[in-house]
Design brief:
This protein is of the alpha+beta class. Helices cover 53% and strands 18% of the residues. An 8-stranded mixed barrel has the order 17-18-20-21-22-23-24-25, surrounded by 4 helices. Helix 8 (196-226) packs antiparallel against helix 9, helix 15 runs antiparallel to helix 16 and helix 22 (711-722) packs parallel to helix 24. Residues 11-20 have a biased composition (Basic and acidic residues).
Length: 876
């Protein structure tokens, strides 16, 4: 058993203060101390005349034979690399046992040293590794001197006690143990951590290997001496042991290679997974959690048994290279701090994805200079090829070995490691983009509602005084109607930029929807909050230049302070709700900035009144169903409608569905509302069928409908009673509604699908997991969210999203409906993309039944045959 150590040398730090330099000086002292001990022990044992020479001068060939044995033992080795020390499990005990039995000490020592001369010369001639060579020379002397000394002592002490070979067995076992103890000491001197349990396990492992080698040598010697052809059996036995060791070495390397691959890949991948699942408080625009690159490079270096491993990561284009080094010159720096870590370096200009091997002895001049700048004599270099670009490179310098540099096994391992590392980096970047998209608004780049909620919840757990401010930009809908949604989007972006200028770069700012923004503040007094809110309102309400026009805008602000109501526990949703109440109070009052007060909770009293009046409203005809037509884009034929609920309250007037539908859903009355809308829609479809018009009707489902196991039976009964074919009834559902309780929702959906009704996913594209769950839902069509359709005429990213959804839906055999079509150009683009159906204000607003009937009559033309055909003639 022998050991090898790597020497660390700092190039970027002051050697008088760098702790690594102190370890290097300590190791040099330790190396010369070991060498001196080896020489002294050799002199003492040599002068004492220990060793055997039973055949006298007639056995002159024993020296060359032992030298050949030591040489072969060093060539056929198993390498076990731990931290900065590499143990080499070899067969040196076999020739050592033979030497202890038949040769003088001087002959065995000389044979051992000559066998290792190649390694010693290679290290001693290099100033960089002088201490390494001196250390190994001293170890070689001790590996022979101590066993001979022990045999001499034990032969006298155990004379007449036990077999004659017992002293030789014990003496030979001392050689690997001494080598292991010295190697552990070297590792300690170099600053490595040594655990007692690990050291004990390593000692036991070495003892078992040494005992096996020694036993083979003793048995072989006895057989060779006792039998005329015993040497042939000994050769066969040695060959078998060598084969066993070789197979074990291969299995051991494969296992450690797999462990290294797994550890390197997971070290990168887990950071991205942790980042995508953590609260939005750690969201950045393009980064996930930092990776411990030193851990990655250390693992690669240990596996390759290299003196140094360098990882270059190319960030923000080729101009910036961040380098992490494991081994000599450890640390992390930019390309400016390490001139050789640049994209113009000859070692980094690698074609393809193969591992390149460079050696100073036969390399071109520019490569030789690059190796010299690194302080290396050989290097393995491999690029990290991602899906779209080269992500970086990995370098391994100077394999720590007595006999050889990097081999084919090292090349294969580094190539596989680079492939796994590049894949992990690609996945990590993808996770970062997905997480950013999940928590950010695509138009402004600010946090979206989900990201803002999670960040607020996270901050509320650690800070007591927080202020949540809500601001609404008014006049946005007017701008969109007059000038198009592109100009409305530009105003939203400009408003967000103005707020950022007032708040500063580190403030928490979000766009909730439309022209609605939210801000989270900390450490402000009430007066400061009011002043800041007024500044924000004034800045956002300043006129906006639109082409050669100046658009006057308005803004209202509402804010809520955590802890203002001691009876209410503050959370993200309640603070948003309080700020929204304050905002509505500002909109309805004569002050544009309002703070929340508990008395404003009266607004919730109105919601309560709406809920209590709702059942009566259904019975008295206050609630109506309006219909918005849908057309087939290819032939512009009206193929169906969407049924939308409207409420004209006798006291509160016409109510927006967004005001009363959430309250109805929260109180469990949504089942009655859904059944009401479905009944009215089926009655209309039945009437159209009687007139020869085949139109479908779409009804929205809520979360509670999907949780009702009896709902499919209600639908089946309504279809049977009205005689409407099930394919003319469509239920629209949102992904969030399904995923709120998928175990209950999916069975209900499957039963509805089995009835033959059409199932559609509404607002598709707004959920960050839509693609992941689409395949699980038994749906027939998808509806592109209108926020993407609005921006198609001016935003290429929205157009790309719409095109992707259409292609995805068609590839899955689904029909695709685009809602929110309000411009001719958008309709033409949808036709070109192959979208199936459209609805929106360009076609018609939602109309009450009587007006919708008039709209239908105006667009009904007689086709060939007796059946009426609905064609949207105004789009011709």
């Amino acid at each position: 058993m022998s050991d090898e150590t790597g020497v660390a040398r700092s190039q970027d730090t002051d050697p008088r203060t760098d702790p690594r330099s102190a370890h290097q000086r300590a190791f040099r002292f330790f190396a010369f101390l070991v060498f001196a001990a080896g020489v002294l022990a050799s002199l003492v044992v040599g002068l004492s005349g220990t060793g055997f020479a039973p055949y006298g001068e007639s056995i002159w060939w024993i020296g060359p034979l032992l030298g050949a044995g030591f040489l072969l033992a060093e060539r056929f080795t198993i390498h076990v690399d731990v931290n900065r020390v590499g143990w080499t499990v070899s067969f040196t005990e076999i020739p050592l046992v033979v030497g202890l039995l038949v040769a003088p000490f001087e002959v065995v020592l000389l044979a051992h040293l000559l066998a290792g001369m190649g390694m010693l010369m290679g290290t001693l001639l290099s100033r960089r590794a002088l201490s390494h060579g001196v250390y190994n020379a001293g170890v070689m002397c001790l590996e022979v001197a101590i066993p001979f000394g022990m045999v001499a002592l034990l032969s006298g002490a155990l004379q007449g006690m036990g077999p004659a070979w017992l002293p030789v067995l014990l003496g030979a076992l001392s050689s690997p143990l001494v080598s292991a103890v010295l190697a552990l000491g070297a590792m300690r001197v170099l600053g490595g951590e040594i655990r007692l349990s690990g050291a004990v396990r390593m000692a036991l492992y070495i003892l078992v290997i040494g005992l096996l080698n020694t036993s083979v040598a003793l048995v072989g010697y006895e057989v060779a001496v006792a039998q005329p052809w015993g040497w042939a059996l000994v050769v066969f036995l040695c060959a078998t042991v060598v084969g066993l060791y070789h197979a074990y070495s291969g299995l051991l390397r494969e296992r450690r290679d797999l462990e290294a691959l797994s550890e390197v890949s997971l070290a990168v991948a887990r950071s991205g997974q942790d980042a995508i699942s953590r609260p939005a408080s750690v969201v950045s625009h393009s980064q996930t959690d930092p990776v411990d690159w030193r851990r990655v490079t250390d693992r690669i270096r240990d596996q390759l048994n290299a003196n140094r491993v360098v990882l270059h990561l190319f960030r923000d284009g080729p101009s910036e290279v961040v380098t992490t080094v494991s081994g000599e010159d450890q640390g992390e720096a930019s390309a400016q701090e390490r001139p050789w870590a640049t994209r113009v370096d000859p070692l980094l200009r690698l074609p393809g994805s193969q591992v390149r091997y460079f050696r100073a002895a036969d390399a071109p001049e520019d490569v030789r200079d690059a190796l010299r700048a690194r302080g290396a004599t050989e290097a393995l270099v491999v690029p990290l090829h991602g899906a779209q670009q080269v992500l970086g490179t990995v370098e391994a310098h100077d394999r720590i070995s007595r006999w050889r540099g990097f081999g084919l096994a090292d090349v294969r391992l580094l190539r596989t490691l680079a492939s796994h590392l590049a894949t992990a980096l690609d996945n990590r970047q993808l996770l970062g983009r997905l997480r950013h998209d999940a928590y950010h608004d695509p138009l402004t780049g600010l946090l979206n509602r989900q990201g803002f909620r999670e960040l607020t919840a996270d901050r509320l757990r650690s800070e007591r005084r927080l202020v949540l401010l809500r601001l609404d930009l008014e006049v946005l809908s007017t701008v969109s109607e007059a000038l198009g949604h592109a100009w409305g989007d530009r105003m939203v972006v400009a408003a967000g930029r103005r707020m950022r200028d007032v708040l500063g770069p580190v403030a928490v700012l979000a766009r909730l929807e439309g022209g609605s923004f939210a801000v989270l503040l900390a450490g402000h007094t009430d007066e400061e909050v009011a002043g800041l809110a007024e500044r924000l309102r004034a800045e956002v309400a300043a006129p906006y230049p639109v082409d050669r026009l100046t658009v006057e805008a308005g803004a209202v602000v509402g804010y809520a302070v955590a802890g203002v109501d001691p009876e209410v526990r503050d959370d993200a949703d309640s603070m948003l709700q309080h700020a929204d109440v304050a905002l509505r109070a500002a909109r309805n009052g004569d002050v544009a900035v309002r703070g929340y007060a508990p008395s404003m909770g009266q607004i919730f009293l109105r919601r309560f009144q709406l809920v209590t009046h709702f059942r009566q409203a259904l019975d008295t005809g206050q609630v109506e169903v309006h219909f918005q037509p849908k057309i087939a884009l290819r032939d512009r034929e009206v193929i169906g409608v969407e049924a939308l609920v409207r409420w004209s309250h006798p006291e509160f007037g016409r109510l927006d569905p967004d005001e009363f539908v959430p309250a109805v859903e929260a109180t469990g009355l949504v089942d009655a509302l859904t059944c009401f809308v479905m009944e009215r829609a089926l009655e209309q479809v039945r009437g159209w069928l009687d007139r020869g018009l085949r139109l479908s009707a779409a009804v929205n489902l809520s979360v509670r409908n999907l949780a009702d196991e009896d709902f499919p039976d209600v639908v089946a009964e309504a279809l049977g009673r009205t005689g409407v074919p099930p394919e003319l009834l469509t239920f629209e559902l949102t992904e969030s509604g399904v995923m709120a309780d998928p175990e209950r929702a999916l069975p209900v959906l499957r039963r509805l699908h089995a009835l033959g009704v059409v199932l559609a996913v509404d607002d598709f594209g707004t959920g960050y997991s839509s693609l992941a769950y689409l395949r699980q839902l038994p749906v027939d069509e998808v509806k592109i969210d209108k926020s993407f359709v609005f921006g198609m005429g001016s935003d290429l990213s929205d157009m790309a999203v719409v095109r992707s959804i259409i292609e995805l839906g068609h590839s899955l055999g689904l029909a695709v409906v685009a809602e929110g079509v309000e411009e001719d150009a958008v309709r033409d683009q949808l036709v070109g993309m192959g979208c199936d159906t459209a609805q929106g204000y360009l076609i018609s607003r939602p109309l009450p039944p009587d007006r919708f009937e008039a709209w239908l009559r105006a667009r009904t033309v007689r086709a060939r045959g007796s059946r009426d055909r609905l064609v949207l003639t105004l789009l011709s």
